[in-house]
Amino acid sequence: MIILIDSGNSRLKVGWLDASNPDMPREPAAVAFDGLDLDALDGWLAALPRRPLRALGVNVAGEARGAAITAILQKHGCTVTWSPSQATTLGLVNSYRVPTQLGADRWASLLGVLSRLPGAHPPFVLASFGTATTIDTVGPDNVFAGGLILPGPAMMRNALAHGTANLPIANGQVVAYPVDTHEAIASGIAAAQAGAVVRQWLAGRQRYGQTPQIYAAGGGWPEVHQEIERLLADAGGAFGAAPVPVYLDHPVLDGLAAVARATLDTYA
Q1: Which of 14, 75, 186, 249 lies 20 to 30 angstroms, CA to CA, from 231?
Q2: 13 phi, psi to nearest 5 deg
Q3: Looking at its record, which EC class is this enzyme (predicted)?
Q4: Left if phi > 0, otherwise alpha if psi is -120 to 50, otherwise beta: which for 233?
Q5: Quick check: 10 and 155 in contact, CB under 8 A?
C-alpha cells in the first residue's frame, strides 16, 4: 500500500494505492482532514487494514508541518518521500525559470490532469481555488507555459473584513448589480476570480490557436463557479463554443498516483 499526501495550507488530503493489485485503479481512494488536525491522520493510519511502508507526498504548509507529518508516518512504520517540482516529470516540461520554485502541489496537479488525457490533447487550463487561487496552462506539447497566483476567495473576503473598519465577512449573492455590501463583496470576489480564469483561457487560445479545456479544483470552487461559467459562456460565444469547466476532486493526489505507478519498483 502506497500512501499519498497533499499537505496544503488549509486541508490535508491523503489517499492510497494498492501496489500489489494488478488491477490497481488509476484514481486513488482519498479522504480529507483539517490541515491542523494531525491527530486525525494518526488515527486514520492506525485504522488501515494493512500497514503501509511507503508514502509519497507534497507539502506547501511549511517545514514544521512536513516534519510533523513525517513523524506520524514514521510512528506507523511508513517512510515518506516528498515530491518536488522538477524540470520534467512523466513527459511534462516545466517552463519556470527555476523549476524547483514552482509549488510542488501545482506541479503534481498538472500531472494529475495529464494522467486523465490521451497522448494527443488540446491545451488546458487548471484553476485551483484554495487558500490561494492558481491558474496554470499546459500546451498540447505537454509544456507547462506558466500561471497566475492570486488570493483565494476566502482570503479575499477575510482581507476586506480585517483590513477595513466597516466591511463585514460577506455572505451575499453574486449578482450583476449589487445593492448591498454583502452582495457587493461576494460579487466582487467572484468577478475577480472569474476574470483571472477567462484571461488565461483567452491567452491560451491566442497562444495555441485552439480552444483550451478548463479544469477546476479546490474548496472555493462552489463559491465562484457560476460567475466563472457565465463569463466563460460570454467569452466563448465569440468563438462559437462555450467551454465548460470540469471539476476534479483531488488532482494533486492523482498526480502523485501517476508518479507512484511509474515507479512501482521503488514504492512497492
Answers
A1: 249
A2: -105, 135
A3: transferase
A4: alpha
A5: no
Q: What is the DSSP string of 49-81?
A: SS---EEEEEE-S-HHHHHHHHHHHHHTT-EEE
Q: Assess whether 105 carries a catalytic annotation.
A: yes
Taking the C-alpha atoms of residue 97 and residue 174, their distance in angstroms, rounded to an integer, is 38
Instruction: Check the annotation: does 41 bind a ligand.
Output: no
Tell me the residue ranges of DSSP E strands in 97-220. Answer: 124-129, 132-138, 143-151, 213-217
Q: Which of 34, 37, 105, 265 is catalytic?
A: 105
Show the domains of the chain with their CATH numbers: 2-82 (3.30.420.40), 104-251 (3.30.420.40)
Q: Is 34 annotated as belonging to a binding site?
A: no
> Would you tell me how many other CB atoms lie within 10 Å of the CB of residue 67?
11
For residues 117 and 120, give the distance between their C-alpha atoms in angstroms, rounded to a whole number: 8
Query: Is 109 annotated as a binding-site member?
Result: no
Helix, coil or strand: residue 195: helix
Question: Cβ distance 258 to 232 under 8 Å?
Answer: no
